Amino acid sequence: MIVEVATTATINTDTLPCGIVCINDDGKIISVNSYICWLLGYSKNELEEAQVEMMLTVSARIFYQTHFYPLVKLHNKAEEVFFSLRSKDGDHVPVIGYANRSGDYICCVFVPVRQRRKYEEEILQAKKVAEAAVEKNDALIALKDQAELQLAESERQLSLLRRFNQEYVELNRIISHDLHEPIRKLMVHIDILLADKGSNQEKLEASFRKMMQFCNRLRHLTISLQQYVAVDLITEPLTTIDLKTIVEKVFDVVANEERYPEAVIDIDEMPEIEGYHSQLERLFSEIISNSFKFRREDLPLKITVSSTEFSNNIYKELKDKYRYISFVRIDVEDNGSGFPAEYDQYIFELFKRIRLDKEGAGFGLALCKKIVERHKGSISAKSSNGKTIFSILLPVKQSSF
Amino acid sequence: MDLGIFKRNNINVTGRGSTPMVFAHGFGCDQNMWRYVYPAFEKDHKIVLFDYVGSGKSDLTAYNPERYADLNGYVEDVLDVCKATHSKGCVFVGHSVSAIIGILASLKEPEYFSKLILVGPSPRYLNDLPDYIGGFERKDIEEMLLTMESNYIGWANYLAPAIMKNDERPELSGELADSFCSTDPVIARRFAEATFFSDNRQDLKKVKHPSLILQCSQDIIAPNAVGEYMKANMPNSTLKVMKATGHCPHMSAPVETIEVIREYLEDVNLN
Predict the structure, then answer these.
(1) Would you state the pLDDT for residue A354?
(2) What's the CATH fold of domain A234-400?
(3) For A13-117, which CATH superfamily applies?
(4) Chain A residues contacting B via beta carbons under 8 Å
(5) pTM score over 0.80
(6) A290 φ/ψ sector (left φ>0, alpha ψ -120 to 50, else beta)
(7) Alpha carbons A166 and A227: distance in angstroms, whole number
(8) Which end of chain A is more exposed for a tag (fewer CB within 10 A), N or C?
């Protein structure tokens, strides 16, 4: 038997057993067929010229914008995409959609899958029950919590170890050089005194004065060193600290000490954080007096203190471990003489100075670094274009560790 | 140059200018979504395109559930990309959730940013009545997650063997990698949760960089009221309501998008 196929027959989309919807880039429905109108309970007039959102459930609207439209736009088609359409009565109609893009239009075909959807939901449900059982396994949760605690402890130990190691290297350098130097000079002078018996009073006095200078230097170094080591030994309790009050107080004290009332400070709103009060006061006192010490002669000193809060990972030592907690970054900016860019690490080393014409033992910033690190934070500095900024990063709550 | 990050985030750098312009895609897509927009800026900028870990052609083995449990991991991705491409002072262009990711990154390491272009941003998608209307209830988002999941069961079974068998149609696997369905369903679900359940309203007031909010007409994901909320709460921000409708003006109305961004950059540079 021969079947003749009419090659000229055209398909009337209104007779097809699936929904057809044409949409433009603006999401406006251009045309629909009868089936989709019947499926959703709208008339053609109601759907055409309306936004496509009208026939989508709220969740399907998100899915359309985040997944479906980008997919069709970029790849000119989409296949077998599951959707929930929304009928005029507000019922959800599960469909599988196919789309083709030609010219400025997206042509979609929707086939309802009510029965199939039920099977799928059952499968999904079973999958979820199985997953939940694994997740809710108490023994597993307890083990995970324990492992988490141990990891946090390892992190603490590792960072402490790293800090102590760095400090041992520093201390070794200080004992072998900084402390040694004045002692050696003292010995030279004593040697001279011992060898030279016939010196007059004046010469003797000059020598003793020199020796006194070296003794002073030694005393200063040992006191600084003691303070530096003591940062770790302090038994002060953690308290909630109002940083703004500290900065204001410290600024007044330093301005008074330096006898420089022309200085101005502008302090932003600052959050309260947990910390060791005396240490944080010392920290800002060192930073602010640094600004005073290195102010420019030709410009009145202006200090600006601002702060920003954001989340940061507490794990620095352990790779691939993440727990984000709130940190605050405090930027102390001044218009002083600053320092050359290459010294941005050097200035935080103990007893290192870059400006030999200024007083000080190169101790303050090293102490700052240690205080910040004891608070599980970090400090950095940069200086360029007449601006010097010290950035202090501190966790808002010490107890989060 | 950190080649590890280049591979991990599938970084592509192009353009002939020196000012970096970093484009960050939104949830549900990848860097391809910028293809109609970035060429217009190639002449004057160094263009940086990338995929978040877990999206597009990123290295899926680098996915760490702890890191990406919330938006913070994505913030680190942006900063890693900026660092790897030496993009200090970049013009950051972020779509949808990437607008917020960019804001958070700019708070964390301000020197990497100069301006923020926020396409369809929302600081919170869920309603918080009576004072805030984000547009959605929790159940809408749960349903959307279910829709995503339903799409994966179908595709996972159907497409996985198809890739193996289709040696004679290599374009199929390429196409697959380009589509949203190539993303691991678990990763996609977590990204969706990190996106739609986040609340970053408190971060807006901290923003220091000048920003442009591109608000589409009739955007159901980030409605007009949300754009106005952003403008009212973010210092130094400019709100531009576009003729384009929907949530993806960079795809549906690239010409207008380019024009608006260009105008803004010229204005800001003049002032």
Answers:
(1) 66
(2) Heat Shock Protein 90 (3.30.565)
(3) PAS domain (3.30.450.20)
(4) 25-28, 51, 53, 57-63, 65-67, 69-71, 73-75, 80-84, 120, 123-124, 308-313, 320-324
(5) yes
(6) alpha
(7) 17
(8) N
